[in-house]
Design brief:
The complex is a heterodimer of chains A (289) and B (319). Helix content of chain A is 74%, strand content 0%. Chain A is built from 14 helices and no strands. Chain A has 2 domains: 67 residues, no CATH class; 217 residues, MetI-like (MetI-like fold). Chain B is mainly alpha-helical. Chain B folds into 2 domains: 51 residues; 249 residues, Orthogonal Bundle (MetI-like fold), CATH 1.10.3720.10. Chain B starts with 8 loop residues before the first helix and ends with a helix. The chains are: A mainly alpha (289), B mainly alpha (319). At the A-B interface, helix 1, helix 4, helix 5, helix 6 and helix 8 of A face helix 1, helix 3, helix 4, helix 5 and helix 7 of B.
């Protein structure tokens, strides 16, 4: 009796679940398609002619792919896109390495090296978390321009290295780092400096990779600060160049979309191959913002 | 300090050396960061506070002291006050919408049995895109005001007239463009946060609720999932709010030279780096914004309890 009853109920539930999950997959599928549309548009328009982008006869995908758009983009005189790509690469890499170096050292010092006033020093860092750097771009510009760093790599890179938030993240991470490992290193006669580089860093590469991924993406995508600093065309980053395309007098649709596609390539690479660390980094950083 | 002649000299010396080693290393580790922090964060703010009391057009070493004039002008001139209004409308729309949408995505993805990683990646993919690039697609393709823009084409199938999405503030269609850009870019990020939190909810809670007769669906969501997500939800709302406060890229690129829809940072940009190069007023504006955001952060800290969040985080990170 009870067995029949159970299997009946089980069958009903299974049917409910099947129809429920069909609806679920439909909803998720529609959302996913909508999320992918902009990417499709970039690729499609990047390989089209202007007439195919704005014209009446709209095709899902152009039959005659315009690979010439790539060479045209880098030969374009009005916006130095090749130069911008180079600038963004230098800035992105230097920003990432510099931030990681400076902030991880400070985070370790604050977390692990005993010092009477360490808490006060930590407060000096914490206070800066309350003020987002974007809000203070006017004061920062005032300082950087009086240093003569406008339109220079220093101006683009250096002011962004001292992130209170990244330092805070490293401190939190090092607080949870197993003490035994360091103590073993100390017993072996290594100083704080030595044990940091030989024991702590090699055992924290996952965390470093996660923070590096996030830092690189935010550096590559930054717009306000590079816009403020890049007064000369020569100092434009990719994002500033894209913005310049949009506000130009003559609008070359195919070039704009090709530029967008090229600007996304490094990030897609990061996304495809470093996603593990990216997700980890977000789970670790996002909690506290 | 013990003197070398005292009987307790030897331990004293050891203590001194024991303190000095770590102290030296402490400054060795934190020094570079702190110097940079002072130069590039503290000095600009102090300098700017000083500038905000001067008539400073195209100069950063002004001589004419004007007291609170810059502040008064910023708060009465219209543009800046209007921008604060724009921010309020923007935040009132974008924060709840992004919150609800990213939570919905997380709930859906969390229930998937097959292809979960695939869908998670798809929703997360826009995180890699910059605001500039996204604005470009939105402006030039999806919400292009001409008849052949994607959205206008789709609406055309239903007989709707062509809409000038960005060029005309009446009715304010530009909000739809602005909000959807941000929604597309940010939802995946917050979905990841919600997913992590969802996976931390103990299964026993749902099992216990099922035994007590709770129907899965709305009831378990309302009385188990939502309360369990409280900490993450609060954090997400705060993050969204702070991000909205700093909105610049999409407004600057979608609405160049428009007189409507300018958030505070865009207004400041044109004040300080536009034709006037008015650093005095720009600095005054920056000070006002800084004060506002500090107030919000402190208030939030009061409500959430800063120390508690800290401990929670440490417990999480330390596992």
């Amino acid at each position: 009796m009870s067995r029949v009853h159970l299997s009946d109920e089980g069958r009903v539930r299974a049917r409910q679940r099947a129809s429920g999950s069909a609806g679920l997959y439909l909803a998720v599928g529609v959302c996913a398609l909508l999320f992918l549309v902009p990417f499709y548009l970039i690729v499609r328009n990047a390989l089209s002619t202007d007439a195919e982008i704005t014209g009446e006869n709209w095709q899902f995908f152009p039959t005659d792919l315009q690979w010439g758009n790539v060479t045209e983009l880098f030969g374009d005189e009005t916006v130095p896109f090749g130069r911008a790509l180079w600038n963004s690469t230098v800035v992105g890499v230097a920003h990432t390495i510099g931030t990681l170096f400076v902030c991880s050292l400070a985070g370790y010092g604050l977390a692990r090296i005993p010092y009477r006033h360490a808490n006060k020093v930590f407060y000096v860092v914490l206070v800066t978390l309350m003020v987002p750097t974007a809000v203070t771009f006017v004061p920062s510009f005032v300082l950087v321009s009086s240093l003569g760093w406008v339109s220079s790599f220093q101006g683009l890179i250096v002011p962004g290295l001292f992130s209170g938030f990244t330092c805070f993240l490293f401190r939190q991470y090092f607080l949870g780092f197993p003490r035994e490992l360091e103590e073993a290193a100390r017993v072996d006669g290594l100083s704080y400096w030595g044990s940091y580089w030989r024991v702590v860093v090699p055992n924290s590469l996952n965390f470093f990779a996660a923070i590096a991924t996030i830092t690189f993406i935010s550096g590559w995508n930054a717009f306000l600060w590079p816009l403020v600093i890049g007064q000369d065309q020569e100092a434009w980053t990719v994002q500033v160049a894209l913005s310049a395309y949009m506000t130009n007098q003559t609008v070359n649709f195919h070039l704009i979309f090709m530029a967008t596609a090229v600007s996304l390539l490094p990030l897609l690479f990061v996304f495809l191959f470093l996603q593990r660390w990216l997700v980890q980094g977000i789970a670790q950083t996002g909690i506290k913002g | 300090m013990s003197t070398p002649t005292s009987p307790r000299g030897a331990p004293g010396i050891r203590r001194v050396r024991g303190v000095r080693g770590p102290t030296l290393h402490f400054w060795l580790f934190t020094g570079p960061f702190l110097v940079g922090l002072v130069i590039f964060v503290y000095v600009p703010i102090v300098w700017s506070a000083w500038l905000s009391f001067f008539e400073a057009r195209s100069t950063v070493t002004p001589s004419e002291f004007v007291g609170w004039d810059n502040y008064v002008q910023m708060l009465t001139s219209g543009g800046f006050v209007k921008s604060l209004g724009t921010f309020t409308v923007f935040a009132a729309i974008v924060v709840p919408v992004t919150w609800a949408f990213s939570l919905a995505l997380a709930l859906m993805v969390n229930r998937l049995r097959f292809m979960r990683a695939f869908f998670r990646s798809v929703f997360f993919l826009p995180t890699a895109c910059s605001f500039v690039a996204a604005s470009l697609i939105w402006k030039m393709s999806i919400f292009s005001g001409v008849r052949f823009g994607l959205m206008n084409t789709v609406l055309g199938w239903f007989g709707v007239d062509t809409i000038a999405w960005l060029a005309d503030p009446h009715p304010p269609w530009y909000w739809l463009v602005i909000v959807t850009v941000r929604l597309w870019l940010q939802s995946g990020f917050f979905m990841i946060l919600f997913l992590a939190a969802l996976q931390n909810i103990p299964r026993e809670l749902y099992e216990a609720a099922a035994i007590d007769g709770a129907k899965s669906g709305w009831q378990t969501f309302r009385y188990i999932t939502l309360p369990q997500l409280r900490a993450t939800s609060t954090a997400v709302v705060l993050l969204l709010l702070i991000a909205a406060y700093q909105a610049f890229d999409e407004f600057f690129n979608l609405l160049p030279k428009a007189t409507w829809g300018q958030p505070p940072l865009v207004d400041l940009y044109y004040t300080a780096l536009g034709e006037n190069q008015d650093y005095g007023r720009g600095s005054a504006g920056a000070m006002i914004l800084t004060a506002l955001i500090c107030a919000v952060t402190l208030l939030q800290g009061k409500i959430m309890g800063f120390g508690r969040g800290d401990e929670e985080y440490t417990a999480k990170g330390g596992k």
